[in-house]
Amino acid sequence: PVVAGTARGFQAQSFIATLKYLDVKHKEHPNRIHISVQIPHQDGMLPLISTMPLHNLHFLLSESIYRHQHVCSNL
Fold first, then answer.
1. Angle at 56 between CA 3 and CA 52, to 5 degrees
2. CA spacing 20 to 30 A to 44: which of 9, 13, 38, 71?
3. pTM
4. How far apart (Å, rounded) are the C-alpha atoms in residues 8 and 31?
5. Strand 32-38 to strand 16-22: parallel, antiparallel, or no bridges (unpaired)?
């Protein structure tokens, strides 16, 4: 099992999140909010990020057909 606080468990990670309002004068995306999240990686591992829920990571990481469902991700 994965236990918090152990070497292979979940730990609190630092991240930087910024919100920027793009007013009506913005050429490409007027009256929108730009969201930026920077998550550092450690030990050569990258965090998995997707706009859809991530289920069964074994299939997502081994079978490319499953990654096509996550076009807005870093898979």
1. 100
2. 71
3. 0.42
4. 43
5. antiparallel
Residue ranges of domains in the chain? 16-67
Lookup result for tokens 């490319």: 64
pLDDT, one tens digit per residue, over 40-49 is 766 656 667 7
Radius of gyration of the chain (CA): 17
Which element (helix H / strand E) includes 66? helix 64-67
If 0-12 CB within 10 Å is exposed, 13-18 middle and 19+ buried, where does residue 51 land?
A: exposed
Characterise 44 by phi-psi region: left (phi > 0), alpha (psi -120 to 50), beta (else).
Answer: left
Asked if 33 and 19 touch (Cβ cutoff 8 Å), the reply is yes
Quote the CA–CA distance of 56 and 52 in Å, as a whole number.
Answer: 13
